[in-house]
Structure formats: C-alpha cells, structure tokens
Amino acid sequence: MADTADSANTVDKLMAQRREKLESLRQTGRVFGNDFRPTALAESLQYDYADWNGETLEARAVPVAVAGRILARRVMGRLSFATLQDRSGKIQLMLKRDVLGEDAYQMFKSLDIGDILGVQGELTRTNKGELSVRANSVELLTKSLRPLPEKWHGLTDREARYRRRYLDLIMNPGVRAVFAARSALIQRLRSYFLERDFLEVETPMLQAIPGGAAARPFVTHYNALDHDFYLRIAPELYLKRLVVGGLDRVFELNRNFRNEGLSRRHNPEFTMLEFYQAYADYADLMDLIQNLLAEASRIIHDNYPAALTDEALDLDGPFQRLTLTEAVAEHAPGAGDYDLGDPSSVAQLAGSLGVNGESHWDWGQWLTSVFEASVESKLDKPTFITDYPASVSPLARRRDDIPEIAERFELFVAGREIANGFSELNDAEDQAERFRTQAEAKAGGDDEAMYYDADYVEALEYGLPPTAGAGIGIDRLLMLLTGHNAIRDVLLFPQLKPES
Asked: Of 72, 244, 302, 340, which sits with the fewest C-beta atoms within 10 Å of its C-beta?
C-alpha cells in the first residue's frame, strides 16, 4: 500500500509540474496547434532512405515534416536528440540550438516524454549511421499531462494494459502489429466472399426474439415500445430469411453478445463471420473454410511477423475429419468399454468421466457432453468434427439415411472451436417441432435453450432452398494465427470487471 501511495504522489507531483509548463506555454500560444501537416511517416523514411549515406543526404537536402510522440530525449547544451514515434514506427530527431534559435531550443528542452510534436527539417545521418531528421522548426502540438509508464511486466501490469489500451499501444509496438494483423484478416475475409459473389449484409443487433445459437442473451428494454429486447447472440435466422428472399449467397461480419462468464477464451462481446450459400451442403462449406483459413494464415505470416509468437499456427490443409462418435471412440478414456450407440451406455461412460447430466437427457446430449468434457481439448491439429446428434443441433438438417444425426460440423484447432456450420434445416414443420422442444426445455429452466420463433417458421413456409451456413469466430481465429492464448490480447477493449 505504501508503494502505491508513493507512486501516486510522484505522479501527482509530475502532473503539477506539467500543468505549470502548460500554463506558461498557453501565454505564448504555442500549444494545441491544429495546422501542422506531416509529409512522411517514420517507417517509410527508414525504408526509402535505408541505402543513402550521410554525404548523399546532405547533398540532396531532403525536406520532411514528421509528427508524433516523444518517447526518449538526450538534452545537451547546443545539440540534443529525441526519439519520435508516429503510427508507423520511430525516427530520431536531431536538434541544434544554432539552427532552431534560442527560444525554440529552450522550448524543446522544457518538453516532457509523451508530448506530441510537429517537426520540419531535412534528413541526415549521425556519426553512428542512424537516419535522423535535423530539425529546422519544432512545434508543440499537444502537451502530455500524465507521465508515460516506465515498465510493463507482471500480472498487475497486464491488466493495466487491457484497461488502458492506449498506453499499451504507445509502449508496445508488438501490440500495434497484432491489431494491424486483425484489420488485415477481416479485410481478407471480406474480399474472399465478395470475390465469390456473396453479398455483404447487415441484420438487427436488437432482436425481439434471440435465436441462431444456444446461449443466454443480454436483455434490454425498448422504452418507446415498452417491450424487452435482446442483444443478438447470432444473426443466423435473419440471414436465412434473406436466402428465402432470393439472396442466395450472403455474409455478415458482425458483433454478437452472449451473457456468459469471462475467461481466457470467452468475451461476452465478440466478432463473428457468418455466411450462407444456397444449393450447397456442409461438406461444401468444410472445403471452403479449409481454403479460406489457409489464405488467412498466409496473409498473417507473410505480412505481419511482428504480430506472431512462437506458438502461432499454420493452417495449411488438408484438415482431419472425424464424426463425433469416432472422436469419442478415439479420444475419450474408457470409451472402448461402452456401446456408443446406446443411450444408457453413453450415460454410464459420461458418469465414469465425472460428467453431470440430467435425467431427461437423450443419447445425443450424453454423447455431446462426453465429447465436450474429454475430447475437445485433445484436438490439437485442425480437425472437422462432423455428424452431431440432431437433438443438440436444432437448426441443422437431418441426414437422410440416419435421421438421428444432423449434417453439422465444428472445426477445432489447438483444442479450441473455431467454426460451426451445417446443412440448414429447410423443413418448416420439422423446424417448428424442434422449436417447440427448445421452448419446453427453456420453460423447464434451461436458460440457453431457444425461443419459439413463429416469424422464422413462417418464412420457412415460403420455402428455403437447400442451403448451408457457417460461423467463424474472428477473435479465436486471430488468437491461433498470432499465437496468443488469451482472447483479451486480440481485443482492443476486452470486457473487464469494473474497478473498485
């Protein structure tokens, strides 16, 4: 506690000093200017002039204007240096009193780490060979009132980085690279589908009936209608309404919300890619996703090496494919001693693994619970798990040859679910019956069961063509591609517990 109090007192004293400097600068009018325009970025200067020696730079007298934040300074009598950071990287500034003039040089000497500058000058190279901007003029654009942190390590500081991501971005260039990679990933996913004649659409985030997944929703109240609404848990049912309307290929990059706990792999607000293709089945989508993820992996690995860690995965195919029953038989401890096609036998297997179920569970629920408890975490290599029980897949089409099985897959990599997809159920009567079963489960206390959506059933009654659809978790995919084990590392503003 004493160390915390001392640190707070030190910050208060430093802030008071900086406020005094700001007040003095206000008298001169040389602060918070808004007319400086940089002409170059640090990274481009370092790249474009990498082969130019000092003599060539002096002879050419290349003029530049750069702007950014001071991260380091070495102040001397007649010559000083500073490190300037802009959105692309860092470059050194060389400041001479004889060139700037006494007033401007003294103003620079009074500046603090974190202040934002605009500098005009010419490129030069120091005796040590470092490319620098020799300043002809310096303008303070923004005074930083709070001192930047000096060290970032340990668990406490990691949480501070999440809470104050702006500081994390200033202090850690690798963090910038992760979010540049995230942007590039989303751009490539979008262009991939546009190239294949998919239409990008938007569907409601506020829904009168939440649907499209088994999850607990967030509830809000719409005052004008005096009615409770829900933040969407998935856009699925709206996207399939569009396929009914003749938009045969649609996709949405969307935010979803699920009222669940926080963990290294879960954030209640997350980004999904969902897409639907008419006249396709779940096997077609597995091929598409395998190709898509291979391209995404190459984009990240080839262009954003600073975003990667040693654990980053390469997703070049082909991916393994196992049915759910095959996966349980291969990986669940003791599965060989049980009949995986018999409900009571699978329930006994679940009990031997410590899985707690409900007395009303059917074969599919018991088998899926065994898979989730004892198999998922073992699927390190990219693996499509296929043919889930229809009872746990309320929106998926049944197999024609085995009605108890749905044409559904999930993709697992490094023990994490990355994608979920299926051939869509387009039998309106079957869908209505499954909704009724879900509604009964909800009435019995299952908070994650679906509501009965009469409007969606009515849409199906007009006719949904044979269709397949899938969702890919963007956050988890980026975790894999960059080697991060915590979802908070790939979200700019992850959900955290409120500070006391």
From this structure: 302
Rounded Cα–Cα distance for residues 314 and 483 (Å) = 10
How far apart (Å, rounded) are the C-alpha atoms in residues 107 and 4?
A: 33
In sequence order, the 6+-apart residues with CB closer than 8 A to the CB of 171 are 148, 149, 152
Amino acid in the structure at residue 241: R
Residue 5: pLDDT over 90? no
State what percent of residues in the chain have pLDDT above 90: 81
What are residue 36's phi and psi, to 5 degrees? -85, 135
Task: Give the tokens for residue 135.
Answer: 């300043």
CA distance 99 to 137: 8
- Per the structure, the count of domains in the chain is 2
Helix, strand, coil % in the chain, rounded to nearest 5? 40, 25, 35
User: How far does Cα 447 stand from its chain's mean position?
Assistant: 27
Whole-prediction pTM: 0.90
Residue 114: alpha-carbon gap to chain centroid? 28
Reading the block at residue 420, the tokens are: 């979920």
* Other beta carbons less than 10 A from residue 281's beta carbon: 17
* C-alpha to C-alpha distance for 67 and 260, rounded to whole angstroms: 43
Domain that holds residue 63: 2-142
Dihedral angle over CA of 304, 175, 142, 113, nearest 10: -110
User: Which residue blocks in 276-356 are alpha helix, DSSP H?
Assistant: 282-303, 324-331, 343-352
- CA-nearest of 209, 80, 73, 184 to 490 is 184
Q: How far apart are CA 32 and CA 6, in angstroms?
A: 31
Tens of pLDDT along 144-202? 999 998 755 443 578 888 999 999 999 888 899 999 999 999 999 999 999 999 999 99
Sheet architecture: strand order including 408-413: 199-200, 249-257, 269-278, 467-473, 416-423, 408-413, 383-386, 320-323
**Contact (CB, 8 A) for 375 and 313:** no
Is the pLDDT confidence value at 294 over 50?
yes
CATH number at residue 8: 2.40.50.140
pLDDT at 2: 54
State whether 211 and 253 are in the same domain: yes
Residue 309 lies in a domain: yes
